[in-house]
Amino acid sequence: MNVMINGEAHDMPPGATVAYAVQALTSATSGIAVAVNDEVVRRSAWDTTPLSERDRVEVLTAVQGG
Amino acid sequence: MDDLIIGGEKFASRLIMGTGGAPSLEVLDQALVASGTELTTVAMRRLDPAARGSVLDVLRRRDIKVLPNTAGCYTAGEAVLTARLAREALGTPWVKLEVISDERTLLPDPIETFDAAERLVADGFVVLPYIGDDPALARRLEQAGCAAVMPLGAPIGSGLGIRNPHNIELIVEAASVPVILDAGIGTASDAALAMELGCDAVLLATAVTRAQRPELMAAAMRGAVEAGRAARLAGRIPKRRYAEASSPMSK
User: Fold this and answer.
1) What is the ipTM score, two decimals?
2) Most buried in the list A47, B94, B100, B136, measured by CB within 10 Å?
């Protein structure tokens, strides 16, 4: 199954969750937030939210700015 | 005490800092400490797994409240999503709402900003919108439930100072939420002028982070904001066309 994580294609096993996708990028769990197809997925739901083919996952954090 | 109160929270410092443009986190850290700020903006971006250190660590270490912004958003929809992600990542309902119209001027888009402000207020956010120096828009955003309004002095990063002091005064006169002069500050006298005009606070970043000596400029801005605030409270003398002797010859 192919999902886009921060604009890059990743191959994930079927049934992979949001938590699995986040772990592909970072081991951090605080200071980051996730949206799937432009909807925020609360941290408490990462483990139980499965991804689907071609989902767009955005993993954001705070950086210098403004 | 002459505290700044935004959304029911008190701040002893009236200087809000941005974090963009600092050459390193060490320089930023020194500048933030010298500025005396208690509230500082950060942007939300895609996580970079290779990044070392975080601006959040600096703010946490210095006990500075984080104010996420929606920099980089061009539409209300993007800004609302970014604010919601910031609330999830940082655990704060505060947001500096910034919706820009084009890359060349980075001027705020009033229509998208107002739309996003209404949606975010309805969603429980403490909304601080970045806007042009437009008194009518400032009033409408206050009526929509924003916790402050943040008119620009001049375009972001331009250092052109306050281009329309009269409009800033009009915004201040009509507002019952804090007015925070945001963007355009180039040097200390600009920050002092903002406070003399009656602004409740000043937000700046580039003027400090890209100064030759950021820490020294941060200290200068701190002094300027304090001096400008004191002058506003003290009440300046009226301007006259001709001299008035301070030691008259006769009674």
Assistant:
1) 0.92
2) B94
